[in-house]
Design brief:
about 110 residues; alpha+beta; two-stranded antiparallel ribbon; extended
């Protein structure tokens, strides 16, 4: 999906029920087969809501949002370019290493008869 500003967004949607507020914070085009745009999200002043989970994992979107907020406060844009997916992968690899070092995998395999 992509928002109206053209940032490609990745995320997933989970919700139940019907929203009863003004919808249209984001104009999204679902990919790969989406035709036209769908509206998602709602805003009230500085408060936003959306059904898109993982929205802030999108580096370009997050950076643009933060820089716009910084601009409102008279602050310069940040120079750092954090890549969320790389941080997440390193954290998962680190957790896997901790589990490998501290779990008796042979005992677990015997216990579940693998």
């Amino acid at each position: 999906m992509a928002d109206a500003s053209g940032f490609p967004l990745r995320g997933y949607e989970i919700h139940m029920g019907v929203s009863r507020v003004d919808i249209g914070l984001f104009r999204l085009k679902r990919l790969p087969a989406g035709e036209g745009y769908e509206l998602d999200g709602s805003g009230d002043n500085n408060c936003w809501g959306t059904y898109i989970h993982g929205l802030f994992e999108n580096d370009s979107f997050r950076r643009d949002l933060l820089d716009r907020l910084r601009d409102r406060r008279g602050l310069d844009p940040l120079n750092s370019k954090i890549k969320y997916s790389e941080l997440k992968d390193r954290a998962i690899d680190n957790l896997a290493d901790i589990v490998r070092r501290n779990i008796g995998i042979d005992f677990i395999k015997r216990a579940v008869k693998i």
